[in-house]
Design a protein that fits this description.
The chain has 317 residues and is an all-alpha fold. The longest helix is centred in the first third of the chain and has 37 residues. The chain is globular, with a radius of gyration of 25 Å.
């Protein structure tokens, strides 16, 4: 249940986004501002104003959804901080606590047999372009940044201005496709969710599982974890899309592989720059265990793995 403070926060967020949207409307389509402020008068809209009004309404629904998501996540985090993870609905900690109470002896076998397979599909009702999804992501991040209490008034004003700029860009970008996306565009649309969230969220999911395991079933091995596999209709649905051929499916799988390898390369490159360990202070593993290439001598293991993955990727392409 959302407390009064949570309700006040949610209202302040919606008020802020509405105010910024209204400023964008006043700048981009001032003739519909009065109708936006008083929707009861929309029957008086001129034909030339309908498109702008619908665009403003569509953007408001998008912003409200982002605000609701931000509020829900904030409430869950506050609940976990005040009462513990087991009090947050749907968490591993809560489920494990219930299992420990009613059927602790069945926990290991239940986890071992559990397999979760989220499936992506390019449904025609989901027509947002990747550009729009990226703007939504940046708006959400700006809202998270505004939660920081240590911001000075000047810093907060700058954050709000950045948020206004994203909403203005959302107006200028156009929310929907005017034509059916190509198969390659559908593939990139699906991969965008991995690049933006799933690659980072999946390790966090396993971390939450292991934290619950340590608190509720500390004697269970840390190697125990649920099986999660991602699936996709995109590029493989030959019944629903006549453009999907054997070659198209092969290309789809190659793009998924390339996206995963690119993620590993980026993370390894970041780790190699971040980890700077002196062999005079800490004992490093034998580099021969990572490579047989003599040119790799003197490199840290992260750098060696980075070059090996890059080499493997070059051979594939």
């Amino acid at each position: 249940m959302v407390d009064c403070a949570g309700q006040d926060y949610a209202k302040s967020l919606r008020d802020l986004l509405w105010d910024l949207l209204f400023k964008t409307v006043m700048r981009r389509a001032p003739d519909i501002a009065a109708f936006l402020a008083s929707p009861r008068d929309i029957e008086s809209l001129q034909d030339s104003q309908i498109s702008d009004f619908l665009q403003a309404a569509n953007i408001w629904f998008q912003l409200k959804k982002i605000a609701d998501e931000n509020t829900a996540v904030r409430d869950r985090r506050n609940t976990e901080t005040m009462d513990g993870a087991e009090c947050v609905d749907g968490t591993f900690a809560q489920v494990m606590a219930k299992i420990a109470e009613h059927a602790p002896d069945q926990f290991e076998s239940a986890v071992a047999s559990l397999s979760v397979g989220p499936t992506l599909t390019a449904h025609p009702t989901e027509a947002k372009r990747i550009t729009i999804l990226e703007i939504h992501r940046r708006i959400y991040r700006h809202l998270v940044a505004l939660e920081t209490q240590r911001l000075t008034p000047r810093e907060r004003a700058n954050r709000v201005e950045d948020l206004r700029g994203e909403i203005d860009l959302l107006w200028l970008s156009g929310g929907l496709r005017l034509e059916r996306p190509s198969l390659s565009e559908e593939i990139e649309w699906g991969l965008q969710f991995f690049r933006d969230s799933l690659f980072d969220a999946t390790p966090q999911l396993f971390d939450q599982f292991l934290n619950g395991l340590e608190n509720t079933f500390p004697t269970q091995p840390r190697s125990l974890r649920p099986c999660i596999k991602f699936h996709s209709w995109i590029g493989g649905d030959r019944d629903g899309n006549p453009n999907v051929t054997v070659a198209a499916t092969k290309s789809t799988m190659a793009r998924g592989r390339d996206t995963a390898i690119t993620k590993h390369i980026d993370d390894l490159s970041r780790a190699a720059r971040h980890i700077s360990i002196s062999c005079d202070i800490a004992e490093l593993p034998d580099i021969a265990a990572f490579t047989s290439n003599s040119r790799s001598a003197g490199l840290c293991p992260c750098s060696v793995i980075f070059y090996r993955v890059c080499s493997y990727n070059d051979r594939l392409t």
